[in-house]
Design goal:
The protein has strands at residues 8-15, 24-31, 37-44, 52-53, 60-61, 67-71, 73-74, 81-85, 91-96, 110-111, 117-121, 131-135, 141-146, 153-161, 167-173, 182-185. 36% of the residues are buried. The termini are far apart. By secondary structure, it is mainly β. A hairpin with a 5-residue loop joins strand 10 and strand 11. A four-stranded antiparallel β-sheet has the order 5-6-8-9, with no helix packed on it.
Length: 191
């Protein structure tokens, strides 16, 4: 059984199934009474349109105790989603990317000190090299920054917030060598 929220030790999404590889099962790992880890399935994602698909991310815990993440596919345009899953397994899609606001969020979300979630999309933006986005507690998505080839292309992985308040991340391409960048961005979008 699930223990109280403070006992949560680990969050992850795992791919399951060979015939339907987009079907995901999200688990919560909890610390048991004797220090053991126990797993309980919270929600199995289906391939039915427009559900989130391929959530290859680490889940973030919100200030409300719910889990938040991204999926690379799914949503109303099949360009990825931002979703919330409650402690009891109720899944809600908060945002479906449409291509104008980004596409293919490969990394998860980070809850920043300003109580907003931040993440990246692999593509879209003015030059289609990706974006940094913010989603607030009212589920309003804002593009914070856009990548151009010189400052990076195709951000991958999860952002982290440093003690200096900047968000840090990596891109798989772009930069002067074309081999990627390590970047920092403010929550106001200075990249």
């Amino acid at each position: 059984s699930i223990y109280p929220k403070p006992r949560i030790a680990l969050r992850q999404c795992n791919t399951v199934g060979l015939l339907l590889p987009w079907a995901m099962v999200c688990f919560v790992s909890v610390q048991g009474a004797f220090g053991e880890l126990a797993f309980q399935q919270l929600h199995e994602l289906s391939a039915l349109y427009p559900n989130p698909k391929f959530p290859i991310c680490k889940l973030a815990v919100g200030t409300d105790g719910n889990f938040y993440g991204t999926s690379t596919f799914g949503g109303s345009n099949d360009l990825g989603t931002i979703f919330k899953i409650t402690y009891t397994g109720e899944l809600t899609t908060l945002h479906s990317f449409d291509g104008t606001d980004g596409r293919r969020p490969f990394g998860g979300l980070v809850l920043a000190a300003d109580s907003n979630f931040y993440g990246t999309t692999f593509g879209s933006g003015v030059d289609n090299y990706g974006t940094v986005f913010r989603i607030n507690s009212d589920d309003v998505l804002t593009t914070v920054a856009e990548f151009g080839i010189t400052n990076g292309a195709g951000p991958r992985g999860q952002l982290v917030q440093g003690s200096d308040g900047f968000l840090y991340g990596i891109t798989q391409g772009g930069g002067t060598s074309g081999l990627g960048t390590i970047f920092k961005v403010t929550t106001n979008g200075a990249l």
